Structures are given as structure tokens and as C-alpha cells.
Amino acid sequence: MRVTELLPPDDCRINEALSLALRVFDEVEAQIYPPSGREHFAAFVTGDELKKHIASGDMKIYICSESCTVIGMIAVQNKSHISLAFVDGEHRSTGVGKEIFERICEDLPESSFTVNAAPPAEMFYRKLGFIPTDMERFEDGIIYIPMIRKP
Asked: How many CA atoms lie within 13 Å of 111's alpha carbon, on the beta-carbon side?
């Protein structure tokens, strides 16, 4: 397994990582959201706004790959907010997500990180040292738990 930061103009790998996020969301999380939540998430992942953030450097995408296939990804916005974090089904609970996050922490050692964790991902973030900052919320059809991890 290899963790790397994707840099524009690596659009092919960026699109592969975003496709993984959308696929895993549909497999794991979509059933807990109303249709409006699924639509909101898909619009975020496939929309031009996200691509603008990536192109400008406001959002960095880290991937874990195995045999040239993306098996996990985490997107960090403004060096402090995890916007997306997904691991392919057969690689979940094998340390892939943790390995990607550890690489991010190496690159940004002084950063505190926030995340709006989907309920199925709450325990993953707790294992990484995140703590909830508020109760579960519901916004734009998305259910999430605001969390933070300090350096």
C-alpha cells in the first residue's frame, strides 16, 4: 500500500478518488439519508465547486493505492477540515484510513482537524482521537456529528 497526495493536474487519479467516495457512500451511508441527502452528497462530489477547491490548492486529496487502484481517500480543506474520507469495502478496518490520516498529520503537524462525521464513521474518527463538539445534526438531508482533533 502506498499513500500519496494527489496534485493537480492529476485529474484522472482525482476523478478515481472521487468516484471511490461516491461509490462507497452509496454502498455504506446512503441508506441512512433521505433522497435529498444523497442528491446533496452526489452534487458536492461531482460538482464544479469541489474541483475549483482542488485546483486552487484549498483542498488536498490523499489516497492509498494498491496495485495502481485507489482503495482509500481523504480530502482535507483549508489544511484543517476533513471533507471526504472513504475506504473501499474489502479494505475497511484494515488500517487504510488510519494510514492516510497519519500521512496528513505528518504533512500538517500543527493542524487541528474538524470533520462532520457520518454516523457510521463516528467510531473511526474516535479511534483517531476526534471528539464530538456538538450533538448529531441534520442539514441539507445529511446527518452528521461535528468533531475535532487537536494536535
From this structure: 19
DSSP letter assigned to residue 73 = E
The CA-based diameter of the chain, rounded to the nearest angstrom, is: 40
pTM of the model: 0.94
Give the whole-angstrom CA distance, residue 19 versus residue 22. 5
Q: Helix or strand or coil: residue 148?
A: strand
Tell me the pLDDT tens digit for each residue of 31-49.
Answer: 999 999 999 999 999 998 8
Which string of b and e fits 125-145 if b means at least 16 CB within 10 Å?
A: beebebeeeeeeeeeeebbbb
Three-state secondary structure call for residue 63: strand
